[in-house]
């Protein structure tokens, strides 16, 4: 049982995944800071709000004296944050990896496969035709 666990932990995929999670968490903190410190105030200024998180409020009256407020700006901030993460991941990780794979594929020698011979059905048809020709 322990040997199976040890084999699982020492597999390269698990270690790569652990590194990705740690880097992803650190990267998320950077993106969150950029969104909250730069983009939220800029877009919030467009809506005359302190930040995007308090922009576009929708006040819902309740039965009591308190009111419930929905901030659609916070949703917009989350969408912006997601898009920024996606853009940075694509341009910092995916695009360079695709380019590196393209270069590696270009350096590989091209393997020319020999032409495939006739199929079994085609050979049987040729034999049939030759036998019919010999018998006639």
Structural commentary:
With 136 residues, the protein is mainly α. The chain has one domain: Non-ribosomal Peptide Synthetase Peptidyl Carrier Protein, Chain A (Orthogonal Bundle). The chain is 70% helix and 7% strand. The longest helix has 36 residues.
Note the topology.
Layout: H1 2-9, H2 12-46, E1 57-61, E2 67-71, H3 72-107, H4 120-135
Antiparallel strand pairs: 1-2
Alpha-beta content class: mainly alpha
Low-confidence stretches: none
CATH class label = Mainly Alpha
Oligomeric state as shown: single chain
What is the overall number of helices? 4
Strand content: 5-15%
- What spatial form do the alpha-carbon principal axes imply? elongated
What's the order of the H and E elements? Answer: HHEEHH
Strand arrangement across the biggest beta sheet: 1-2
- Give the second-level CATH assignment, the architecture: Orthogonal Bundle
In round numbers, the mean pLDDT is: 81
Provide the CATH superfamily: Large-conductance mechanosensitive channel, MscL, domain 1
Helix content: 55-70%
Query: What is the number of independent domains?
Result: 1
Protein name: Large-conductance mechanosensitive channel
Subcellular location: Cell membrane
Keywords: Cell membrane, Ion channel, Ion transport, Membrane, Transmembrane, Transmembrane helix, Transport
Main location: membrane
């Amino acid at each position: 049982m322990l040997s199976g666990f040890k084999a699982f932990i020492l597999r390269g995929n698990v270690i790569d995944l652990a590194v990705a999670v740690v880097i992803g968490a650190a990267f998320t903190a950077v993106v969150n800071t950029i969104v909250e410190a730069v983009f939220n105030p800029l877009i919030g200024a467009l809506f005359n709000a302190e930040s995007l998180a308090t922009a576009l409020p929708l006040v819902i009256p309740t039965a009591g004296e308190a009111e419930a407020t929905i901030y659609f700006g916070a949703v917009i901030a989350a969408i912006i944050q997601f898009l920024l993460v996606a853009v940075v991941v694509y341009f910092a990780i995916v695009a360079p990896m695709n380019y590196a794979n393209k270069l590696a594929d270009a350096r590989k020698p091209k393997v020319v496969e020999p032409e495939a011979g006739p199929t079994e059905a085609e050979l049987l048809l040729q034999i049939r035709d030759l036998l019919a020709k010999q018998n006639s």
